[in-house]
């Protein structure tokens, strides 16, 4: 009997969210020394591929699937990112920039230096670039379900289509070598090696619970991925995507795959990570407000010559604690819908 809920995957979610939060809210020297954020992103992408295959329903239409994904991701993104979206609207004065961030629309072109927005980031919420990649993955899954709503078809179709587009994009336009957050354009999303984490997650789920001989499509992906790596390797190890693939993705895939197939991990540390995993999405989005706020605070401190590393460390530690505290309650209010229930009850009493 296949479990619909895998306890250890919530632990992975909690750990992945903490990796991103700690890199964003650590002193710059620490963050550069230990780039945990990309490891966290690799785990999140692998989890998405894994869980989409694990919870795949052949009785669910493509329309219902994408509707559920939007309902799960978009409202929380919009509410938790509103402070940053309004702040960047004030800084950029651009309705175009606003629309891209309100609706998670990739850019046609993005140049951090040349764009006339007085803002260097393509996303108002610095963590939200991953959601564009997530929706790209869901879109391909949705197309597969439209063609033939059978897991045995949707799995290889989605994986092979994603890798085929990845190869065509890299051969046609080249690979810019940047990590996903650098510029969220259609070409950079479709041609980024980070997409292989989704494919690895799908393959990991299929290998983990089924007879490998029934999933020969998995082995067709291996030479395809190796060909793509060979095409990009000619640019050398300065390509940040290759370095991320080798240093972050591959270890993350092995780690998550191992935990998904292990008995439930119990104990104080694992239980706390599991609890954080429950509200990891709110934490992932909401901490970005403190990530942006830290630069404002540090700039103000610099004006008064208050540049002590001890003071900065204390402020960042406070930001981490506040991120955890508020995210836990925001998860309950927004993701679990308790806020809407309270508003509904108020409306009923008023009526």
Structure at a glance:
It is built from 15 helices and no strands. The protein is mostly helical and 351 residues long. The longest helix has 31 residues, at 62-92.
Structure description:
By secondary structure, the protein is an all-alpha fold. The protein has helices at 7-24, 28-33, 36-54, 62-92, 95-102, 129-147, 151-173, 186-190, 196-209, 216-233, 240-260, 268-278, 280-303, 309-335, 338-350. It contains 15 helices and no strands. Helix 1 packs parallel to helix 13 (280-303) and helix 13 runs antiparallel to helix 14 (309-335). It is globular, with a radius of gyration of 21 Å. The model is unreliable at 209-216 (pLDDT under 50).
Properties at a glance:
mainly alpha; single chain; 351 residues
Largest sheet: none
The total count of helices amounts to 15
Beta-strand proportion = under 5%
Number of strands: 0
Helix-strand layout with pairing:
Elements (H helix, E strand, L loop, with lengths): L6 H18 L3 H6 L2 H19 L7 H31 L2 H8 L26 H19 L3 H23 L12 H5 L5 H14 L6 H18 L6 H21 L7 H11 L1 H24 L5 H27 L2 H13 L1
Helix pairs in contact: 1-3, 1-12, 1-13, 3-9, 3-11, 4-5, 4-6, 4-13, 6-7, 7-9, 7-10, 9-11, 13-14
């Amino acid at each position: 009997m296949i479990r619909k809920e895998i306890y250890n995957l919530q632990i992975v979610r909690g750990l992945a969210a903490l990796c991103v939060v700690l890199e964003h809210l650590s002193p710059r020297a620490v963050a550069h020394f230990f780039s945990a954020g990309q490891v966290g992103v690799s785990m999140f992408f692998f989890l998405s591929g894994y869980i989409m295959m694990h919870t795949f329903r052949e009785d669910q239409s493509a329309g219902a699937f994408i509707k559920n994904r939007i309902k799960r991701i978009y409202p929380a993104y919009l509410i938790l990112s509103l402070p940053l979206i309004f702040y960047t609207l004030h800084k950029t004065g651009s309705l175009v920039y606003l629309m891209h961030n309100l609706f998670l629309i990739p850019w046609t072109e993005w140049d951090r230096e040349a764009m006339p927005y007085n803002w260097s980031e393509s996303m108002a919420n610095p963590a939200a670039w991953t959601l564009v990649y997530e929706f790209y993955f869901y879109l391909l899954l949705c197309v597969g379900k439209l063609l033939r709503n059978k897991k045995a078809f949707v799995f290889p179709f989605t994986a092979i289509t994603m890798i085929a587009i990845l190869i065509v994009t890299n051969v046609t336009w080249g690979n810019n070598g940047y990590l996903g957050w650098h510029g969220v354009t259609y070409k950079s999303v479709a041609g980024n090696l980070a997409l292989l984490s989704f494919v690895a997650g799908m393959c990991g789920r299929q290998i983990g619970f089924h007879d490998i001989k029934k999933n020969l499509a998995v082995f067709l992906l291996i030479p395809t991925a190796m060909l793509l790596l060979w095409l990009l390797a000619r640019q050398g190890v300065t390509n940040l995507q290759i370095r991320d693939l080798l240093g972050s993705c591959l270890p993350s895939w092995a780690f998550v795959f191992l935990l998904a197939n292990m008995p439930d991990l119990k104990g104080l540390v694992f239980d706390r990570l599991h609890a954080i995993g429950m509200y990891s999405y709110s934490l992932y989005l909401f901490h970005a407000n403190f990530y942006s706020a830290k630069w404002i605070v540090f700039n103000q401190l610099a004006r008064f010559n208050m540049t002590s590393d001890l003071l900065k460390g204390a402020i960042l530690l406070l930001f981490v604690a506040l991120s955890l505290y508020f995210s836990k309650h925001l998860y309950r209010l927004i993701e679990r819908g308790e806020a809407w229930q309270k508003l509904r009850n108020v409306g009923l009493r008023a009526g």
